[in-house]
Write a structure and sequence with these properties.
two-stranded antiparallel sheet; 420 residues; single chain; 2 domains
Length: 420
């Protein structure tokens, strides 16, 4: 554990310093795009934070290769080299998109190329921990290639889709990644499998890099990770989960894993928020006859803002949902299933109540408003709770305050945030 913490610390320090440097250079040379219609921020902000994240990861992996404790991982250096090369390639595509906006077909082609390269380098889902009597299902070479490519592309896009609020992707990665690191590290101790050590190392350097970047990305963000950073983060999370889920061999007794389904469920659990947002976005756009990769302002984080949550509260809600599902799933490894299930249910109920709280507050405001006849027709906008407009989210107003004139003043003084 000490060496994992060491490489994570190195990655974090390098990423922090690189973030500062990239931020200074971006402002000096005006390397930032204009404000888009769907953006939440209102001032031009650099989107090259992914460069700092990748620098932290590459430097940390280079130092790890010189530490004898990681000799088992670097005995076959080709997978690590492939991961670094794929990260740099994906970063390059993302940076070009952040600066000049590539079309979605070009980005998808690059993602398929990177995912295929990773699969070719032996980072494949060769088996699944499901089968008769808790056994292992081996995949054919063709099926292994297809499943691996689809999984990597899916996770990259899912992570990229939730990159809409300051600190959101970095924080979700830290929470989910920590859970997955604990899981893979426990497996590496119990089984001494190289794949689990590789997963732990990749996740450790990723956690360090995102933690070093987060101070610059916290609201109000000074710099964004952009598509370059989000796609690389998604790719590395996919690589880590594939190293665990897809490299389990029949020689491992499933009883050592507590349940044969946990290696399959945990990757989905730690990525539940981005995968859910990605799935809803694809369905929404296909139903509208649009490309599944077209941009819009209906992501989950946009809807939280529309419900009445502040930027900060919306980010914390995403953190909470991620923590409940990911930590709850991990609890099945360490305690009786009924206690773990109880903890998950309680956490989900609490998250639901917090998420829907603005709607209840909105209903109370509406009730007070409708009981104040002096407000007249100006209160008609409260009748439908169409978008739970955030202009009154700073606190309930009394009936006396809800006069037609004061409502007009409140509307002009409190405009909803634009979407990013």
């Amino acid at each position: 554990m000490t060496f994992y913490l060491l490489v994570a610390l190195i990655s974090g320090v390098v990423s922090f310093g690189a973030s500062w440097g990239v931020l200074r250079l971006s402002h000096r040379f005006k390397l930032y795009p204009g404000i888009r219609e769907r953006d939440v921020h209102t001032t031009p902000t650099p989107r090259l934070g992914g460069i700092a994240i990748v620098i932290g990861i590459v430097v940390s992996l280079a130092i790890a290769s010189q530490i004898s404790w990681f000799d088992l991982v670097f005995a076959d250096p080709f997978p690590i080299i492939a991961i670094v090369a794929a990260a740099i390639l994906m970063l390059g595509v993302g940076v070009v998109d952040d600066l000049w906006d590539l079309n979605w077909m070009t980005k998808l082609a690059a993602q398929l190329l990177v995912a295929g390269f990773l699969a070719w380098s032996s980072l494949q889902i060769t088996s699944l921990p499901v089968g008769p009597n808790g056994g292992i299902t081996l995949l054919s070479p063709t099926m292994s290639l297809i499943v691996t490519v689809l999984a990597v592309v899916l996770v990259m896009n899912a992570v990229n889709f939730i990159d809409g609020l300051d600190g959101l992707v970095a924080g979700v990665t830290i929470i989910a990644g920590t859970v997955f690191f604990i899981y893979s590290y426990s497996l590496s101790i119990d089984t001494a499998q190289t794949a689990f050590n590789l997963a732990s190392l990749v996740m450790a350097v990723l956690l360090g890099a995102t933690a070093g970047f987060l101070p610059f990305n916290w609201h109000p963000a000074k710099i964004f990770m952009g598509d370059g950073g989000a796609l690389v983060v998604g790719m590395l999370m996919a690589v880590s989960t594939i190293s665990v889920t897809g490299q389990i061999t029949p020689s491992i007794d499933p009883s050592q894993l507590v349940t044969a389904f946990l290696p399959l469920l945990l990757p989905f659990a730690v990525l539940i928020v981005p995968l859910l947002d990605f799935g809803l976005a694809v369905l929404r756009r296909l139903r509208a006859g649009k490309s599944p990769f077209s941009a819009d302002r209906q992501h989950l984080h946009h809807r939280l803002l529309d419900m009445g949550h502040s930027h900060f509260h919306a980010v914390l809600i995403f953190y909470a949902w991620t923590a409940v599902v990911a930590v709850g799933t991990l609890l099945f490894l360490f305690m009786a299933w009924w206690w773990a299930l109880t903890a998950v249910i309680i956490g989900l109920i609490a998250c639901t109540l917090v998420t829907l709280a603005p709607l209840s507050r909105r209903k109370r405001i509406e009730a007070v408003a409708q009981s104040a006849p002096e407000a007249g027709d100006a209160l008609a906008r409260f009748d439908p709770l169409d978008a739970a407009a955030p202009d009154l989210r700073d606190g309930d107003m009394t009936a006396a305050e809800l006069t037609a004139g004061e409502l007009t003043t409140a509307d002009s003084a409190r405009q909803p945030e634009e979407s990013r």
